[in-house]
Give the backbone structure.
Amino acid sequence: MKTLIVFNHPYDGSFCNALLMAAKRGAEQCGECGVIYLDKENFNPVMSSHDLHAFVLARHEPEKALALLDKQVLAYKAKLEEAEHLAFIFPVWWMLMPALTKGFIDRVIVPLVAYDYAPDGTMQSRLEKLKRVTVVTTMNTPPDVYERNFGNALSKALFQGTFEAIGIKNCHWISLNMVSGVDEQQRERWLKRVEEYFSSETF
Amino acid sequence: MKTLIVFNHPYDGSFCNALLMAAKRGAEQCGECGVIYLDKENFNPVMSSHDLHAFVLARHEPEKALALLDKQVLAYKAKLEEAEHLAFIFPVWWMLMPALTKGFIDRVIVPLVAYDYAPDGTMQSRLEKLKRVTVVTTMNTPPDVYERNFGNALSKALFQGTFEAIGIKNCHWISLNMVSGVDEQQRERWLKRVEEYFSSETF
């Protein structure tokens, strides 16, 4: 199984970085694992007027639209097309993903890259190999508070509102909560759990 | 009353741009109105390791933290400190704010800029003049669907999870829905409503 992890954290010593290493170790037990390092690759998360023009042209003038797409977006398109398991690892800031990950959604989950339009205008995934999307996050809010007070805003937007909307229904969220307060043993248990999860082809 | 509008849309001909003009006309009827054009000012929405370091130092070594802050963030800090009414205008993409606006939250709503820590560690707004936060958005999802299926993810994160969390409780959301399908008359009514809203000092 081919895994592609989209990673976002500015600090190399972060727990997210340890989670990335664990996920990679797991994924490599059942196949290849590629990583997109959004920070280190200086991904530009800002939707430009060119991007928006491509978005508008995509349905009826796909060739013109493709010609407008950024090189970095096209490079990520090639990686996405090979992925069977797509994962995101990032810290939750102000109850949501950081801007860099949101920009990956805004600029890469676009028509002609991640989905096409059916004749009736609905979205259909064009990532034919993709079987699963996983999001691994860290936050300092308890899970029940995040659900009750913030309505699980992250998974609502990223799963129901994005991946499920383009037809990818097999979405999983590994939410690691109250991270700053836990001890080393709990962190080790989480890393082990993440490694095992990514090593499994069945889901 | 001093109004500060944080604007985010990459296309000058957008309806968001018309909303900005209407909001500005309204705000100028009751005082000064400044605008932060996130796209045109090339705001960098990506939290750097420097920013993160400043965030970590802020509570116990504020002078060191301030020295690490980006010039653009400091320029926005000066504008925020004067604002009595802070507003955001942006399109909803994938159920949330665009990356650029999320980056404004990540990088500018930080300790020593937008809030300080009380002795018990809770956040307290340091924007002493700020009386109201308003968000004006466009989207193509009906309001009841956005509430039912996506739990109003945007207002949950941006109001309850951000501004209310730092003590700014007076938050209002003007959500304009199904924008791509409405006629010119409806757009005119919306622009008028927005102009009137921004011209009012009472709320």
Summary: Chain B has eight helices and seven strands. The helical segments of chain B are 15-28, 49-57, 62-68, 71-82, 99-108, 143-150, 153-163, 184-199. The mean pLDDT of chain B is 96.
